[in-house]
Amino acid sequence: MSEKKVVEHSSIFNPCELSKYSKGGIVSQQLINNSGGNISLFAFDEGQNLSEHSAPFDAMVQVLEGTGEYIIGGKSHQLHAGEMIIMPANVPHAVKAVTPFKMLLVMIKGS
Fold first, then answer.
1. How far apart are CA 47 and CA 83, in angstroms?
2. Does the structure show a pLDDT above 60 at 3?
3. Cα(109)–Cα(105) distance, rounded to whole angstroms?
4. Cα separation values, 18 from 23, 55, 57, 99, 110, Å
5. How far, in Å, are 22, 47, 60 from residue 106 at the CA level?
6. What is the DSSP letter of 18?
7. Across all residues in the chain, what is the average pLDDT?
8. Domain coordinates in residue numbering, the chain
9. pLDDT score at 4
10. Among 14, 47, 59, 64, which one is least packed by beta carbons within 10 Å?
11. Model confidence pLDDT, tens digit, residues 14-69
12. 31 alpha carbon, distance to own chain's centre
């Protein structure tokens, strides 16, 4: 069984157009997922959140539209469209939608 691709290799796309908001929810899509890491697209409706958790690898997020709050190791960071932050491996973090917002998450599996 083959995995359904969200985008084809070597094709031009706008990530904001790929993911639509879901009222009262969070929508996620994996754009790339392999042994080296993954890239995922998220769309959060206002007020939605991901509870505190940690990951074994560094993760970088870029806010594509709207405003999101990232709590990393107990410190709050508010990011707006175009801004990025790196969440270090094994440090608890949480995400909350201040407004409806979309983000791109890049995780590289390695040391």
1. 20
2. no
3. 13
4. 16, 25, 26, 19, 28
5. 22, 23, 5
6. H
7. 93
8. 25-108
9. 54
10. 14
11. 999 998 999 999 999 999 999 999 999 999 999 999 999 999 999 999 999 999 99
12. 11
